[in-house]
Amino acid sequence: xMKPDTALLNVRQMGExxxxxxxxxxxxxxxxxxxxxxxxxAIEQRFSACRVLVLCGPGNNGGDGFAAARYLAGHGWPVRxxxxxxxxxxxxxxxxxxxxxxxxxxxxIPSVLSSAELVVDAIFGAGLSRPVxxxxxxxxxxxxxxxxxxxxxxxxxGVLGDTGDDLGATAAVLTVTFFRKKPGHLLMPGRLRCxxxxxxDIGTPVSVLEQIVPDTFENDSALWLAELPRPQLGGxxxxxxxxxxxxxxxxxxxxxxxxRGAARAGAGLTTIAVPEVALPIYAAALTSIMVHxxxxxxxxxxxxxxHRFTALLIGPGAGIGGATRTRVLEMLGSGRPVVLDAxxxxxxxxxxxxxxxxxxxxxxxxxxxGEFRRLFDADADKLTRARRAAQLSGAIxxxxxxxxxxxxxxxxxxxxxNAPATLATGGSGDVLSGIVLGLLAQGMxxxxxxxxxxxxxxxxxxxxxxxxxxxxxxxxxxGVLRRLQSQGxx
Length: 490
What we know:
alpha/beta; Rossmann fold; UDP-N-acetylmuramoyl-L-alanine:D-glutamate ligase; 2 domains; 10-stranded mixed beta sheet; 7-stranded parallel beta sheet; 15% strand; elongated
């Protein structure tokens, strides 16, 4: 099991965590009471006392809302509660907490918002499987129209906890969830609807994860920092790995960006193999990156016989067609870790089976959504699509975007959440493929290398801020790695 602190639990797994907590001796009533207290605390820490309206649904989410209302009122906040349906629809612990609320309970309709300054959305939880409609939809829409700040319990009503899909949610400024985040807190568009996400400890024993065995995690340095390569005294450039990139022509910038990413990620040597006609262009733009001219196509296969090359990349600027397909198959046949990006993926759009058959060792595919659709079925949520693609191809998939998903053929998946909007710039994906290559060249385990590269890429961009262009990214990596070292890393 990977680091439990970064585990993400789907709706079924969270239900199992609750069940195991009850088995461990924590009653549902107590879990709900602690949830209400945590919601109230999060609100009190972020807002000044004001008129609060708690919108409660007919399930356990509503029970959390009643408990939160009681705690806020007990601390002197003016609180009203509105309930979807009658109290007779509430059962179990939710019914008990509703009975403990001594104030009035209004019907959940838009007019109830008239005096509210802050709204708590405790209508539906993460397990909702149908669009928000009726009085709930009308009230939430009216809330958005009035510009009232919303605090969501578990997830904003309408956001699916497993996928992040939006079935009619009103965006929250704060979401309070419990024990562990869910994938929907990180996957788009759910991530946009959640606002700040607070994970409250309500006493669920961490030991329940040993029985649940999570397979999805939020990307964090805690997952891979111990395995991040570091230079060793007594080592030399070849012990730090030799990265090889197949460079294209006439498009040359993409491969050069990837090469600089690989070098800054720590590869001891980085070489770009290029058509002889392109040698002056590459050589004039690169200094520490070596450029190897290829006179005829077979020269590349001969180059692969040099076993000092420890990881390979093709795709950025490679060109689409038979020559790229041939080179991809040569790389995959070499037995070394291979990164396939951009044109290397599109070149197999009409013959994906030959690509998948050739993947027998460590291979990472780094598609954006458009490239993904040329090779794989896109009819599912992002996490499911990435997992299916990994299992079908036998490769680790880095499905890029604001919510990049890294999926392994063994079922593990990591969701990244640190990528800023400034990464939406030409060439940033080429740098990412180079960072992956640089870590692989140093011998890092491929799935962890993928997760680390995506996180480092996002962190570098975040540190730069507005005005970022792809050329900036490689030179930002040393600062990120230095900060990791100061935190006890490599």
